[in-house]
Amino acid sequence: MNPMTSMPETWGALGSALLTFILFQDMIRRYCPPELQRYLEKWSIKISGFFNPYIQISIHEYLGNHLKPHKAYAIAEAYLSANSSKDAKRLKAEMGKDNGNKLMLSLDEYEKTTDEFEGVKVSWISGKTSPPPRPMLSYFPDPDKKYYKLKFHRRYKEMITGSYLEHVMKTGKEIQARNRQRKLYTNGHNMSCWSHIVFEHPATFKTIAMDPEQKEEIIEDLLTFTKSRDFYARIGKAWKRGYLLYGPPGTGKSTMIAAMANLLDYDVYDLELTSVRDNTELRRLLTETTSKSIIVIEDIDCSLDLTGQRKNNKKEKTSEETEKCKKDTKEESVSKVTLSGLLNFIDGLWSACAGERLIIFTTNYVNKLDPALTRRGRMDKHIELSYCKYEGFKVLAKNYLEIEAPHPLFPKVEALIEEVEITPADVAESLMPKSTKDGPEKCLLNLIQTLEKCKELKDRDQQDRVEYLEIK
């Protein structure tokens, strides 16, 4: 038989069969009741699945009929963004959802790419489904719902649904962590939910003015914490650590928090207790925080009446303390957060709601705090940020003036700064150039002048104290 003459006959037979199938499908859709159609569709899927050796897993952008984002879809998208450029021909470039400064590549609609895992090849297909048309009066049509389909041979089902999907989720999360922008959250202005902005504070431990040994100790403690997940699980403790930062105003407590966040690449939740109505709302806010985050309560001694000692010592408050702790009367009357409610979250059952978190309290007056707030197990590490000394000055001189020792004026600064109490903020202000004509020497002379004035005041106060004691 001549193959050339049989070819048209083959194509003709195939076309007739296809036409017959289409007509048969149209007749079913037109004349069969919906129940019979669903029954036939169900069995057609089963029959085709019997002959088709491939399995498909769909990962949709949204969960169910609600527009709630599906975390697995975002993770798969991140994974494919790093692996889809191997053989995909149509890619889509978009600004990153978690990093608006970085361009991310992903599969274009209905594009296919392959991936290999332990010698097994799988296919990923990008697609979307359009929503049904809505009434003409609807101004907000439903968005298209995107999805990814993972296709593989059924003989590898156990491996793909196990170790491969675990690999995709783990790698995708790591890519998300590398690409994301850190955020600064707040619940201020009487809000019962978190709002956020991009966290772009430039502080690092290199730029903090403090004793080098203390700085290295803090860095080592932080890095050890991030690697201690198994240790915390073994000893039966929630994976969290509390830090109490205390010291006079201007010693860099907020800057220290920013440096911690930049070192660990953590988000920051700045919790304003006076904006929280009660313990229930506090619990809900704190359970909405994520892992790899820092929960901060600044000036804890002034955040509502959380300490019993403060009520008995009102007469002993200085005018500075009174001014700092003065809060809006209306806010305090609304908030019903209690000390026990806060403590229950720090180290109670709710403390394990998310892993790998730092809880940081700051205060200018550590002696005013209730011991229940500062005991070990709640505030595990107490860090005193005190007045600026010579080592801290050298860091600030390098930051502000780009000069290092030896310098002719450094010995004079060293002699003065060890005799007075001056905060890093005051030193930084003196070193700040006031005009474009101010050079490093001029700024150092400004600092020396400031230190000399501080010394004169200190000597005068000591002399007045001696004279007072002699008279008495």
Task: Tell me about this structure.
The chain is α/β, with parallel strands linked by helices. The protein folds into three domains: 42-131 and 142-179, no CATH class; 183-310 and 318-384, Rossmann fold (3-Layer(aba) Sandwich); 390-471, no CATH class. It is 46% helix and 17% strand. The protein contains 17 helices and 15 strands. The chain has helices at 3-31, 34-51, 71-83, 157-179, 212-226, 229-235, 253-264, 279-287, 308-312, 319-324, 329-334, 339-347, 371-374, 390-401, 410-417, 424-431, 440-471, and strands at residues 54-60, 62-63, 68-69, 91-95, 103-107, 112-117, 120-129, 145-153, 183-186, 195-198, 240-246, 267-270, 293-297, 357-363, 381-384. The strands form four sheets. It has a seven-stranded mixed β-sheet with strand order 10-9-12-13-14-11-15, with helices on one face. A four-stranded antiparallel β-sheet has the order 1-8-7-6, covered by helices on one side. Strands 2-3 form a two-stranded antiparallel ribbon. A hairpin with a 7-residue loop joins strand 4 (91-95) and strand 5. Helix 15 packs parallel to helix 17. The longest helix is centred in the last third of the chain and has 32 residues, at 440-471. The protein is elongated, with a radius of gyration of 33 Å. The N and C termini lie far apart (132 Å). The model is unreliable at 307-317 and 327-333 (pLDDT under 50).
